[in-house]
Write a structure and sequence with these properties.
Blueprint lengths: L1 H9 L4 H6 L6 H15 L1
Length: 42
């Protein structure tokens, strides 16, 4: 029974994904975007 609950939790779609129709950006994506913005400010 616990396995079924874990599978359902993994398949949940966030509000972000529902509203925009695309996956949530990763933390790596966010870090790269922040670094790029910082470099462009120079």
């Amino acid at each position: 029974m616990e396995l079924l609950v874990e599978i359902e939790e993994e398949n949940k779609i966030s509000d972000y994904e529902k509203e925009r129709g695309k996956p949530m950006p990763t933390l790596l994506h966010g870090a790269i975007q922040a670094n790029l913005g910082f470099e462009l400010q120079k």
